[in-house]
Amino acid sequence: MGAELLGLRPGLVFAGAQLMDVAAVGAAAHLALRLPSGEALTFVLDLTGPVGPFPQCPTLTYRSTPLPFSVVEPIGHALAQAIAAAASGALPAQLRAWQGEASSLEANLDALVDRPGRSLRVAEFSSADLIAARPCVVPWTRLELGFAQQVGPCCADFQVQPQTATGPPLDLWQSAPLRGFRRALASPGHPATCRRSCPRLAGRSDALDSLVLRGGTRAFVDNQRLALSAIIAGDERPRNTPLELVVSTTSHCNYDCLMCHFGQEGSLSDEPPASFYASLEPLWPGLARFEALGGEPLASPVFRDFLAGPTLRQYPDVRVALTTNGSYLTAAELDRLAGVSFEHLTISLNAATPDTYRDVNRGLPWLRIRHNLDALLDRKRNRHNPESVSYSMVILRRNHGEIAAFAELAEKDGVGVRFMLPMNDRGGQSFLTDAGLMREVEAQLREVARRLHARGQIGDARRASGEAEVLRDRLARGVLRPLPDDVVQLRRG
Fold first, then answer.
1. What are phi and psi of 15, to 5 degrees?
2. 3-state secondary structure of 226
3. pLDDT at 86
4. Is the pLDDT of residue 110 over 60?
5. What is the spatial distance between Cα 229 and Cα 217, in angstroms, rounded to a whole number?
6. Which pLDDT tens digit goes with each residue over 113-168?
7. Can you spell out the DSSP letters for 44-109?
8. Would you say 469 and 441 are in contact if contact means Cβ atoms under 8 Å apart?
9. Residues in a beta bridge with 321
10. Apex CA 423: angle with CA 156 and CA 158, to 5°?
11. Which residue among 232, 272, 338, 395 is least enclosed by CB atoms within 10 Å?
């Protein structure tokens, strides 16, 4: 009687303890649980083993533990009752409800096959309980490969302990760092892997209800189907491949922005070779989004040649995203990349006026960047490539007075907007050491978020609210120091 076949999947809670893993060990099933206090407890379901202390399921026992039986007993009884109910065909109520939601989604997913123009919002089929239980889904959808073999589902600045791993991409997807994030995000309470300063978690911008599934080939849709199933079950070892892949193309940057060390310390020496992009072949059939970061990602000649090459054209379901300072996006380069399907381009402007742009970015003149932006926006309007554009601002002492004007610039140009808190305190530009400035910025961000929400830009509104929540939390705790909470050094190969 396999526990997994009985519907006992990671994420279910028994008398306050959460099921973290179900593993087959010979003829037995080992069920690892974690108590709210953090202690681990393992039960063993073995038809050939000794009789255990739980009458509802006599074949259930537990491993030796320093926990008193008064703590173990209610968990064991709840688990035994669930096993007995499942064996008789009555699944635990929580899982039964969630599986019903998954079944409702299944039929709609079939309608996406071979229809690349269609999409499906998971929020329309998910209960509030399920959405609340999955505050961030990126460990099941996103693989980020940083400098120096750093691997995870998200930005290292917001991880409690950034991890490294080596190997082929599919091995990295199932590596210990990714499994740890999945275990943490399927557990109750604040995830042990994530800093409180993560604005995406605070603003719930990557929660389950933000997930949108896209139409495409059968393999592409089925990979999303597997991802959704893994998210609902809280599986540590999902059967899907990543829906999103993020790579760092080089730490080199042709700008020297006030708040960023890449302009001074970055180098093309960490630029991945062409063989790296060739090694990603197993991921392309199921990939929805390929995102490049830097430094300045387009400063990498190898990456630019990869973009202009044949690989991405062989997989039309893959959309490309870039975060760039925009200096390489000349009309000529946009023509060279015309065959690339750009889903989103984030342009790091950091200013609403030419003078502030000059002082903060310390790169090309504003008029040249404005010329590039106009060419890009023309392609967005007339060719729908890119599908969307956002302007990004890292909020500093030098530019914090332009938050509202920056949002208005984005609105005027018909693009999205993103605000970010500064990392570290390069040049004394972090305002996070000044409580008065923090309150001022929080108020501005909340007003921008309100306006964005009213215009229907829900994702942008959530992200702005997330940054505001981080400020509110730090003010409430009296934390007046730069982010991140532990300094993350420049990572180079």
1. 50, 40
2. helix
3. 66
4. yes
5. 19
6. 999 989 998 888 877 878 888 899 999 999 999 988 899 999 998 999 989 999 99
7. EE-TTS---S-TT-TTEEE---SS-HHHHHHHHHHHHHHHHHHHTT---HHHHHHHHHHHHHHHHH
8. no
9. 291, 344
10. 30
11. 338
